[in-house]
Amino acid sequence: AVVSTQSTGKMKHFFNFTRCKHSLHNHNIHSLPCFSHSNHYPTTPNSLLFHNYTKRISIFNRHYSTNTTNANIISDQFPDIQTLSLRPYVKSLFCTALRKAFPSLSESVVDSVSVTRNTNPRLKNDYQFNSSILLSRTLGIDVQTINQKIIEAFPNNEILKEPSFVKSGHVVINIADSYLEELANFIISGENIKSKPLCENRAVIAGKKVLIDYASPNISKELHVGHLRSIVLGESLARIHHYLGANVERVSHVGDFGTPIGLIIAYALEKNEPWTQKTGENSYTSVLPTVQNLSSLYTEAQKKKKDKENPTDLEERAQKTVAVLQQAIQFGLESVDENGKHVYHLWKVICDVSRKAFRELLDLLDVKVTERGE
């Protein structure tokens, strides 16, 4: 997903996330990646995204304001930020509680207990202790009593909220909001972090020119979830690199020319669509299509073109339309006849309507990207 160019020009890094194979999953944060300049970007499903402009951190479903200038120091007892995985730490706290609550338990039994990350989106807890029923058989005590003793003996800490137990017999626990906010503050500031990955990266990346190509929709077609993923990944990297001091150029190469465009124009003219009408020699209707309308026209045209039982010259007309359009774009409108000028006008209408629809989504995501056509 990450490509670094070897050119001698100013463009030192080129990122293309249109075909990124790693998706982000909407879970609570359970592991934090380390960002480094060696193109070893995080591929764990739980990745940290942040907005440097407003200094607001978005840790998936949790949002915290980080306007405070001084963050609290994270104690050395916490796991190292660079390789942080909270599950072993959570298990160690449950093991400590078991040793205190049930001194008679052997170390082998304590070490074998199960603590897992919750993967059920319907449940609100982050981690759960799964060995209460097994311990009930071992100790000859009912599950509710075991759970209550574990909760009472659970060590005080600044990472997790107080545990509780649910009807299923599990003890459940959540990561403290204050810890997530504190951790996010430290990742941004780079202070009191042993590895200081972002500070190291700032020295490497600051001042360099970074080109990030993402989004890249096709004119006349609706955006889909694949575009959304590309936009989120590309914009996240753009903001990270901007924060690190790079001169970031955001580019979206749109598919605004080619046979698909010619096919839509030729088929729309054949169907005599309202937005294709002329009102005079050099004047056109003010009726505009929607992106949904254009997408439907393309789908219908493709079916008609491939219909062997009812052959048509639609593909040939589409190719001629593209040729006329190319001439008008390359050599100017004076190089084409009235039909060519009409085709050029329809192409502009399709592009303008599509851009407006794209812009609505990009504005919602607060994404400002420079469009580059074919």
Principal-axes shape call? elongated
Oligomer designation: single chain
Task: Report the β-strand fraction as a percent range.
Answer: 5-15%
Summarize the amount of helix as a percent range.
40-55%
Label the structural class. Answer: alpha/beta
Tell me the strand order in the biggest sheet: 1-2-10-11-12
N- and C-termini, Cα separation: 23 Å
**SSE pattern:** EEEEEHHEEHHEEHHEHEHHHHE
Q: What is the number of helical segments per DSSP (H or I, 4+ residues)?
A: 11
Q: How would you characterize the largest beta sheet? A: 5 strands, mixed
Uncertain stretches of 5 or more adjacent residues: 1-83
Number of strands: 12
> What's the average pLDDT?
76
**Taking Cα atoms only, what radius of gyration do you get, to the nearest Å?**
29 Å
Summarize the structure.
With 374 residues, the chain is α/β, with parallel strands linked by helices. Helices cover 41% and strands 12% of the residues.
Distinctive features:
alpha/beta; single chain; 4-stranded antiparallel sheet; disordered N terminus; 12 strands; 5-stranded mixed sheet; elongated; 374 residues
